Amino acid sequence: MPINQTYAQYSDLSVVSAMAVYFLALLLHAAESAFGRQALKREAKLAAVAAGGGGTAVAERPAPPPPRERPLPERLGRMGVALTVLGALLHLASLVLRGLATSRVPWGNMYEYISAVCLAAVVAWLVMVRRHPVRQLGAFVLTPIGIMLFIAAKLLYAEAAPVVPALRSYWIVIHVSAAVIASGAFLVAGVISLLYVVKASNEANPKRFAGLAARLPESAALDKTAYRVSVFGFPLLTFGIIAGAVWAESAWGRYWGWDPKETVAFISWVIYAAYLHSRATAGWRGTRAAWVNVAGFAATVFNLFFVNLVTTGLHSYAGV
Amino acid sequence: MAGILALLRNTWRGLTAMRTALVLLFLLALAALPGVLLPQYSLNSAKVEQYKAEHDVVGPWLDKLGFFNVFAAPWFAAIYLMLFVSLIGCLVPRTFEFAQQLRAEPTLTPRRLTRMPHYARAEVDADPDAVVAHAKERLRGWRVAVREEADGARTISAERGFLREAGNLVFHFSMMLLLVGLAAGKLYGYEGQVIVRADGSENRQWCNSGLFAYDSFRPGLRVDGTELSPFCVRVDGFQAKYLHTGQADVFHADLTYQDGAASLGNDPDAWRKYGLEVNSPLRVNGDRVYLLGHGYAPRFVVTFPDGQQRTGAVQWKPMDTTTLLSEGATKFDRPGVTDPEQRRKTQLAVTGLFAPTAGYDGTVLTSVFPMPNRPAVAVDVYVGDLGTDSGTPQSIFSIDRRMVDAGRLSKVARKNLELGQELTLDDGTRIRFDGVENWVSLQVSHDPAQEWVLVAAVLVLVGLGGSLLVKRRRLWLRAAPSGDADGTGRTVVEVGGLARTDQAGYGEEFTRLAGGLLAVGRPLAAPGGGRERQDVP
């Protein structure tokens, strides 16, 4: 099947635009954080004055008069989310155009795969923003995703091309899409768990991470959000591994052979299994469980980059 | 004695505790890590040797401790076996508990429903019996117990979501089934590789008749190489296509095979056709045949001084997977020489490089493309004693260098030849590069347990779905006659709810349910007291 160069060019254009739009969204979220903190400080000062300068300052805020319009930080944050949606649409367009250009699924090499994982992460993030009060985390979530997308598009970029015979199987649709969505979800969950650790530490001792923690939602909300996303990702990861094993049986002659990618997938799976168990174990709830989720995040990133770039295994395609 | 028993009991309790299982899970993840960070024998033994050569201090130690064979190491096995013992110790009691719960009635309605995380209340003009009848109607799918309290109040205890624990148990038991299936495969399975020439000549059929038929063979622990599944294959032709970038595009081998299964409706003598490709192995008689790779066998025609001709074509080994530049050695015995002494002086080997599409760097031959567009060889010709009489096995890809070092085999010519060109040795022997043949490398795999592993894996997924999606939750309803003295059928209805799992989200369902339960008769006071707390973990 010949490559449609026009589509391929528009795909490249889309991904660059998506990166630019994500960056703007990131700036807006950062501004939301910054202004939000100033507003918080102002209110704290007011409260301190109202309380006659004595006692704990922020314990009870005076009820502010109902605002005529949304406060500036919230408006900025909402703009950030809107831009993220726009970025995601451009990002999606770049993948769809890649697929059209090559007449195959748009995750046939490292560039496309990481790009798809980033899109899955952005979508997971947008779904969470809709369901949970976590919008303030925008800057923290978009930063790692942006960095990964940049690495994929600048350092690991591969021209639109057909894939090798080993990848020509309908299992590439099933196995890789499950891996993409699960990885995307885990990336977001890991960032949120890391922020949970910060917030929980601050709640235990207000002196720690005072600046950062002030911009974060309640630790309970963070914990719940991270758990929800992980619980969504874990069955998908399990399914992805099983689908991979079925594919490996027909492509490589065995369903499991401890290929580096298989091994790290196994390690991630064990870590996430431990995370789910740790939330039901006395003494492990809270910060410890969150660290386990962060370890899962580390394993996911390790699997994305290290396994393909440093080791050589059967999952190496198109040079990496 | 009592001390020993106590020790055993405490050990068992410790091992089956969730905390221990968690630690074992972490250990398992940690123990698998060297399998990625260090080269492994099972994946690439050459890399292990290289690593050992580069790290001469830690290398041998790591080797002794099994770090180059992590997944067969005793310490790795110890961790997962402990994990599974811990799992059994946890699962068996839970199974019995679950069986009891399935038979047990839902628990009594607590005195104070206001203390439940979810609570709603209303005063209605229907009598308690009507409220209960209405509620039973609404609570279809729930496990329900209706009770009467001393003061005349009627209560309903309802519970649902038992599939959560069922899924949980299915998940964990399936994990064990999966491990058993994996182990059975390692015991009774085998895997072998063989290189077969792809020219379809009758005498080139390959049969799965025993160890000797393979170039390399990895038997399971209970496989001795006899009683392999009988079948034969013949490779009639092979096509490999590459894009102009050198990336592989199509690999296709035309197979003919004979299924030796002595079953009804199968003619073991019948030959059938199959197009073997990557991703579509031939499944025959319980075994699978895979197309692993391909390469070339340059064909040489040697014309000896007495006019006799010999043709030789053996597979040469690809050195570079992208250009298929290959190396090898094609060996000849001089025809008509019967005296061993004489033979050991006149054996001949054509060794060197083969390029499917030749490119020259000066006179040095390289390959620029993997398809045979312009085949050429750069050969060294050796004459003398190849060492094949010594009884020690030697590689088909090279000559025995020791014979050269001992001066018993000497290089007599070196030349680049393109297709059809020939070289002449001093004694008049002519060697012509006559043609190129294809060979394919096949893998035969046998794993009698893999279907069971698949079944176990699907059950793992089903169990996981149940245990993560289903919420175990309880609901209680109390319908008490109102305290008013006239007793005109006013009833206070209270509903309380509790989710027994840490997954939040019972609130919405409860609000909806309670709304339905309280909508009975004519409400006298608007449903009130509706509130929601955090679900109790």
Automatic annotation (TrEMBL), chain A:
It holds the Pfam family Cytochrom_C_asm. Keywords: Cytochrome c-type biogenesis, Membrane, Transmembrane, Transmembrane helix. One of its GO terms (molecular function) is heme binding. It is found in: Membrane. InterPro entries: Cyt_c_assembly, Cyt_c_biogenesis_CcsA, Cyt_c_biogenesis_CcsA/CcmC. The chain crosses the membrane at residues 15-35, 80-101, 113-130, 137-158, 170-198, 225-248, 260-278, 290-310. GO terms for cellular component: plasma membrane. Residues 107-315 form the Cytochrome c assembly protein domain. GO terms for biological process: cytochrome complex assembly. It comes from Streptoalloteichus hindustanus. It is a multi-pass membrane protein. This is Cytochrome c-type biogenesis protein CcsB.
From TrEMBL, chain B:
It is a multi-pass membrane protein. Keywords: Cytochrome c-type biogenesis, Membrane, Transmembrane, Transmembrane helix. GO terms for biological process: cytochrome complex assembly. The chain crosses the membrane at residues 69-92, 169-188, 452-470. Its main location: membrane. Residues 18-510 form the ResB-like domain. The keyword Transmembrane helix applies. It comes from the Bacteria. GO terms for cellular component: membrane. It is found in: Membrane. Pfam families: ResB. The keyword Signal does not apply. This is Cytochrome c biogenesis protein.
